[in-house]
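#structure-requests
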Amino acid sequence: MKINKSIQQRLMLGLGSLLLTCSAVLPLQAQANNASNVAVTQVAEVEEVVTAADGKADVRRVPAARVEPGKVVVYTTKLHNQGKDAATQLSLVSPVPAHTTLMPNGTAVESAPLYSVDQGKTYAPLAQLVVEKDGRKRPARLSDVTHLRWQPQKPLAPGATLELGFKVQVN
């Protein structure tokens, strides 16, 4: 499988008075069987409310150029099957960026992800995960999530695109 990572965007994260520059490109891991050419692209955007001349408010997404604490960033990853055969057994792993917290109901609806709270070593539905802090175990929370893994059950047909994503709030 050929993976084309055509992601060119940069993301500025403002953390307190310190301004950090980091790549919006997350180190994605994509896998599939029976796929000769799956292109993977990712964008990081923020949502803006724009008021039209008639007074109606509209929400649009724009590239995340500078993001300050409290802002929400939307990561969207597209898998496009450019091959002649269906891509099966798809799997996409994405880390949750440092200094952010995964938002509730912030993942794409086409395929629900599994969550990891141990840097991608194990994955399960969030309700099944437990973390240990200071010798005490407790149910995992969204703020504990370090990685997401999607494993869509349906093959990705030739020419088809699958869109996955998640939202995070900058800490």
